[in-house]
Design goal:
Layout: E1 3-11, E2 20-28, E3 40-43, E4 56-66, H1 68-71, E5 77-85, E6 108-119, E7 124-125, H2 152-165, E8 169-174, E9 180-188, H3 190-211, E10 214-216, E11 232-237, H4 239-243, H5 247-255, H6 261-267, H7 272-275, E12 290-292, E13 299-301, H8 303-307, E14 314-316, H9 325-338
Parallel strand pairs: 1-5, 12-13
Antiparallel strand pairs: 1-2, 3-4, 4-5, 6-7, 6-9, 6-10, 6-11, 8-9, 11-14, 13-14
Helix pairs in contact: 2-3, 3-9
Length: 341
């Protein structure tokens, strides 16, 4: 009887940043299909999601893909991303995926996930000397060579596993600071974009275990210094944006965001005031602006959309690296729908 390893992955109830949790389920003669993944349960009292007297929470599988690394050992293995439900089968209050109003998958999302790789011995990014700093920002972005690029073996392995897993990863690059990297994920459907980001994050964490480093998703881990923070820029479109053909439609959708600055910041990741300062390619946290090719704006209109006759997408540059992509997507969709275009 053939065995398969299914790694059920979910988000816990910790605040202000939820952590990834997982456990392995062994199945016999598993088809590899999502519809054949059973519901499962876990102890919510150990994850800040239930009390000890009524501790059961349920895992509802929502996305599946192969686990390339574990499969190398010989037994077929899969990642199974799950939503958390309470004992009655209702979405748990920590379940951001359930808040997405995109049943027809009209909204497409591309997330640019930035992060730092940290050395646990120095508690600093790779490439930072103990107790000091490397050369200032400038040579690290999209760099090559051991003087400027740190941790490439990790991010290359991550890229390859994402491809083997069937995730729609669209690229990687070294970022502005030493030890800082980025990967990009795209999906036609807000929920699946979130699913794939979370699975990609999980894979990165697992790979880093082997190398003895850890992933720092804090948006400004180096504090009040002249080093860039980390974002998770949200590129998004719907039918209106993809087919607009009119600058006025882009203006109307961009302007619909201005009344909801606080609502967006509330779900765009903790400590964003440290990152959204008006410096380092950001707009101030309490202001709103948009513009063509403007990386210092809250929302950037890509030049490609203009060149295609105002048909394309928008980029919200405010979500930070620790934000929940489900909640980011849900808020963007809710705001765009107020534009009524």
């Amino acid at each position: 009887m053939a065995k398969a390893k299914l790694e059920y992955i979910w988000l816990d109830g910790y605040k202000p940043v939820q952590s990834l949790r997982s456990k392995t389920k062994i199945e016999n003669n598993f088809s590899g299909k999502l519809e054949d993944c059973d519901m499962w349960s876990f102890d919510g009292s150990s994850t800040e999601q239930a009390s000890g007297g009524s501790s059961d929470c349920q895992l509802k599988p929502v996305f599946i893909c192969p686990d390339p690394e574990r499969s190398k050992l010989g037994t077929p293995a899969y990642f199974v991303m799950c939503e958390v439900l309470d004992a009655a089968g209702n979405p748990h209050e920590s379940n951001g995926r359930a808040t997405i109003d995109d049943d027809d998958n009209d909204f497409w999302f591309g997330f640019e996930q930035e992060y730092f790789l940290y050395d646990p011995e120095t508690n600093l990014p790779l490439g930072f000397p103990a107790g000091g700093y490397p050369a200032p920002q400038g040579p690290y972005y999209c760099s090559v060579g051991s003087k400027n690029a740190y941790g490439r073996e990790i991010i290359e392995e991550h890229l390859e596993y994402c491809i083997q897993a069937g995730l729609n990863i669209e690229g990687i690059n070294a970022e502005v600071a030493a030890g800082q990297w980025e990967f990009q994920i795209f999906a036609k459907g807000a929920a699946e974009a979130g699913d794939q980001i979370w699975v990609a994050r999980y894979m990165l964490e697992r790979i880093c275990e082997k190398y003895g480093v850890w992933v720092n998703y804090h948006c400004k881990p180096l504090g009040d210094t002249d080093w860039n923070g980390s974002g998770m820029h949200a590129n998004f479109s719907n039918t209106a944006l993809r087919t607009a053909g009119d600058k006025a439609i882009y203006d109307k959708i961009c302007q619909s965001f201005e009344p909801f600055v606080k609502e967006h910041i509330a779900v765009y990741g903790p400590d964003n005031h440290l990152r959204l300062t008006g410096k380092h390619e950001t707009q101030s946290i309490d202001q709103f602006s948009y513009g063509v090719s403007d990386r210092g704006a809250s929302i950037r209109i890509p030049i490609a959309a203009v060149q295609k006759g105002w048909k394309g997408w928008l980029e919200d540059r405010r979500p930070n690296s620790a934000a929940d992509p489900y909640k980011v997507a849900a808020r963007i969709i809710k705001t765009v729908k107020t534009a009524d275009v």
